[in-house]
Write a structure and sequence with these properties.
Low-confidence stretches: none
Mean pLDDT: 76
Radius of gyration: 22 Å
Largest sheet: none
Structural class: mainly alpha
Number of domains: 1
Number of strands: 0
Shape: rod-shaped
Number of helices: 2
Order of helices and strands: HH
Strand content: under 5%
Protein name: 14391_t:CDS:1
């Protein structure tokens, strides 16, 4: 049992780093997609509203 646990902890550091990098990339892509979708919606629905909001 002890040996197994030790081996797991050895692997975990590398695995965790890899997973974190992958998750970070995925999250970044998701946020970017969300932002692009919102931007696309805006341009379709109300580009003038945004311009008028900037002036005030």
């Amino acid at each position: 049992r002890e040996r197994k646990r030790h081996r797991v902890s050895e692997v975990t550091n590398e695995e965790l780093e890899r997973r974190l990098i992958v998750e970070e990339k995925a999250q970044h892509a998701h946020v970017r997609k969300k932002y692009l979708l919102r931007k696309a919606k805006e341009t379709l629905n109300q580009p003038a509203t945004r311009l008028s909001q900037r002036k005030s």
